[in-house]
Design goal:
mainly alpha
């Protein structure tokens, strides 16, 4: 190191001491992801890197680069966490929309199935009613046919009874006439 570099190094240490004190006392009390803390640490890292290069002090330069890397890493972690949170929120929103869509689809499918069942039941009931009406019509027609046959048979039987009565009457009249003529023939013999 040269004399100029030694002087700059001494002056830098004088300037750095209050900044390091602020960083140790105030910034260390802030959360690690705090913008103020990251800004203070990043500023110190840049100062250390520049001062280390100007003064030729590799230790100070490495310390500055390490601080800068630490700040970058914290910022990346913060960014990654925000990105992950955003993606989680989007995924949750998408899941909720998908669930709602699935629920609507399920409700529509259920309603359609119920309509199909109702329609099928109505068709079955209609078919059964039509079959019952047809069966009643058939039974009524058979009953009327049977009644007509019974009435015809009854009429035939009644006609037969009338004819039988007429025959009996005619036979009785024929007997009476035969008796009369037998009586007339007997009276002519005597």
């Amino acid at each position: 190191m040269t004399l100029v570099q030694d002087i700059l190094d001494a002056e830098y240490r004088l300037v750095r001491a209050p900044a390091a004190f602020v960083e140790r006392t105030l910034a260390s009390r802030l959360p690690e992801e705090s913008i103020l803390r990251l800004g203070a640490e990043g500023g110190l890292g840049i100062m250390d890197t520049v001062a280390g290069r100007v003064t030729g002090n590799a230790v100070v330069s490495r310390r500055g680069r390490a601080l800068i890397e630490q700040v970058k890493s914290s910022i990346r972690a913060r960014w990654d966490e925000r990105r992950a949170s955003h993606l989680r929120n989007r995924a949750e929103s998408q899941r909720a929309r998908s669930y709602a869509h699935a629920r609507r689809t399920e409700d529509l499918a259920h309603a359609e199935a119920m309509n199909t069942v109702d329609s099928t039941l109505n068709d079955l009931v209609q078919d059964k009613v039509e079959a019952s009406v047809s069966a009643v019509d058939t039974a009524t027609a058979r009953s009327l046919d049977a009644r007509d046959r019974v009435e015809r048979r009854s009429n035939v039987a009644q006609e037969n009874r009338k004819l039988e009565a007429q025959r009996e009457h005619d036979a009785e009249a024929g007997r009476h006439e035969a008796e009369f003529w037998l009586g007339v023939a007997d009276s002519n013999k005597s």
